[in-house]
Write a structure and sequence with these properties.
The chain is an alpha+beta fold. The chain is 28% helix and 26% strand. It has 2 domains: 140 residues, 3-Layer(aba) Sandwich (Glutaredoxin); 49 residues, Antioxidant, Horf6, Chain A, domain2 (Antioxidant, Horf6, Chain A, domain 2, 2-Layer Sandwich), CATH 3.30.1020.10. The structure holds benzoic acid (BEZ). Benzoic acid binds next to helix 2.
Length: 223
């Protein structure tokens, strides 16, 4: 299995936009690969439709989006009509992001996305709801893995992309329930004497019973 910080595995795949080499398709962008158990299923339809509506938000963050479901490209193409309709999109508009086919579960097995509790009518395991976030250097940065019966929250996915991109540029970490613009935490590796130069906006040390000055807040850096 691949680990956070390693190069994300490359693969070739058939998609609704033709055959792709995943790394070439990513180019210099960040990417999010999200998988689904099956076409023409209710939760999946709501998720792909939400991504359609959020596409401008992903584009603003230089993130390309690609889905994966076990069924064939022909099935995906038919399903896209339902997804567009559910999203309130014009049926004649091109579906704006690709969906990978994975009939033999080749990619799902390679990326550890199979859910052994969910089987198709032939008894083959389906893909879980996996999310992989890959940065512009093809590095694997974050994953989520949900079962078929629990739809994901795509606002959370945008939130973690904001955190990843901010913390790549500024020496901060983002605390619980953080949203872009909220106060951030000074990295524990930053020493007291480095603070004035790195955080001219100032730092607040939160007093704690331990007496240790490790919980240091600063306003969200402008990057
Ligand atoms: C769904 O997308 O609604 C779904 C798919 C597989 C199992 C359960 C729910």
């Amino acid at each position: 299995m691949f680990m956070l910080g390693e190069a994300f595995p490359n693969f070739t795949a058939n998609t609704t936009d033709g055959e792709i080499d995943f790394h070439q398709w990513l180019g210099d962008s960040w990417g999010i690969l999200f998988s689904h158990p099956s076409d023409f299923t209710p939760v999946c339809t709501t998720e792909l439709s939400r991504v359609l509506k959020l596409l401008p938000e992903f584009q603003k963050r230089n993130v390309k989006v690609i889905g994966l479901s076990c069924d064939s490209v022909a099935s995906h193409v038919e399903w896209c009509k339902d997804i567009k309709c559910y999203a309130g999109m014009n049926e004649d508009d091109k579906f704006p992001y690709p969906i990978i086919e994975d009939k033999d579960r080749h990619i799902a097995m390679k990326l550890g996305m199979v859910d052994k509790d969910e089987l198709d009518s032939a008894g083959m395991p389906l893909t879980a709801r996996a999310v992989f976030i890959i940065d512009s250097n093809k590095k694997f940065r974050l994953s989520l893995l949900y079962p078929a019966t629990t739809g994901r929250n795509f606002d959370e996915i945008l939130r973690v992309i904001d955190s990843l991109q901010l913390t790549d540029k500024a020496k901060v970490a983002t605390p619980v329930d953080w949203k872009m613009g909220d106060d951030c935490m000074v990295l524990p590796t930053i020493t007291e004497d480095q603070i004035p130069k790195i955080f001219p906006q100032g730092v607040t040390v939160v007093p704690l019973p331990s007496g240790k000055s490790y919980l240091r807040k600063t306003s969200c850096p402008k990057v």
